[in-house]
Design a protein that fits this description.
alpha+beta, elongated, single chain, RNA Polymerase Alpha Subunit, Chain A, domain 2, 2 domains
């Protein structure tokens, strides 16, 4: 009976350690996959025709234009926030910055949602910026 417990004690302890490590790994993987399941309190809403605002430097007074004029935005967030979210709380902007833009450059669209809301998609994610000619100075 004594040999049943103490014979190959090293292999038995190693097997016990290996079984515990496998159980902990599988338990962690299952816990992570449960945490990433969609929550019943999460809603997704799509807003069509969200107008794009062009943001440029204060010194640049040219009238930039974009094509298309609006984007389709899909946002996700808690149901409580999504029930009260209005389209005017989302701001689509295109920053032309200080860098000189060449005619017909594609610029990424940025969305500014409320803090509890996440942007999941923007269609199109880049828009064409039409740069007007710089007015010539008359002597």
């Amino acid at each position: 009976m004594r040999d049943l417990f103490f014979k190959d004690l090293g292999w038995k302890l190693f097997s016990l350690f290996l079984a515990a490590a496998i159980w902990l790994t599988v338990n962690r993987i299952l816990h992570e996959s449960i945490m990433t399941l969609p929550d019943a309190n999460v809603r997704t809403v799509t807003y069509d025709n969200l107008p794009i605002t062009v943001v440029s430097a204060v010194a640049d007074v040219r009238a930039f234009h974009v094509a298309p004029l609006s984007v389709k935005v899909t946002v996700t967030g808690p149901a409580s926030a999504m029930n009260t979210l209005q389209a005017d709380q989302l701001h689509a902007t295109v920053s032309v910055g200080v860098a000189a833009l060449t005619h017909g450059q594609l610029v990424p669209v940025e969305i500014s949602p409320p803090s509890s809301v996440a942007v999941t998609s923007i269609e199109p994610d880049k828009v064409l910026v039409i740069v007007p000619a710089v007015p010539e100075k008359k002597p």
